[in-house]
């Protein structure tokens, strides 16, 4: 898994972007925490994202595997107060948080089975089944994230309608 990387050039760009940002909110979007595997905060503890490997000392391994990198990616995001990391790899709604960074797995809008795929990879957080999408509304005092459900017309009922908000939360701006 150490072979999967964003690379030195992208790391330097990301670090510089976070260091120089004056934005009140910082949202990072990617396909997945590590580009492969499953999980949110669970994966953020490992390899170049968290510096660790299962069953090994993290700090020495990280320094050896990523020479010249100041911090693992998660710690870099936490230091610079990234508001949220959005990913879509696992196809379910799951909102987690680690060190002040929201890890938000995006649901699959077109899942007619309304399943909670890969839920076992997420050991914490709010987990809800598909189908739907995220609506993010950014204002001066808060950013609102809503999980908006989608149903096929034949699957709608009095209590299940497309457009229903299944879960909502807010993110405060950086100080």
Give the fraction of residues assigned to helices: 10-25%
Instruction: Return residue spans where pLDDT drops below 50 for at least 5 consecutive residues.
Output: none
Q: Helix tally?
A: 4
Which fold name fills CATH's third level, the topology of the domain at 7-128? Answer: Transcription Regulator spoIIAA
Order of helices and strands: HEHHHEEEEEEE
Please list the strands of the largest sheet in the order they lie side by side: 1-2-4-3-5
Q: Write down the Rg.
A: 17 Å
Look at the helices and sheets and give the structural class.
alpha/beta
Percentage of residues in DSSP E strands = 15-25%
* Biggest sheet descriptor: 5 strands, mixed
Compute the average pLDDT.
Answer: 92
CATH class wording of the domain at 7-128: Alpha Beta
Total number of beta strands:
8
What gross morphology would you assign?
globular
**Ends: how far apart?**
35 Å
Identify the CATH architecture of the domain at 7-128: 2-Layer Sandwich
Protein name: Calcineurin-like phosphoesterase domain-containing protein
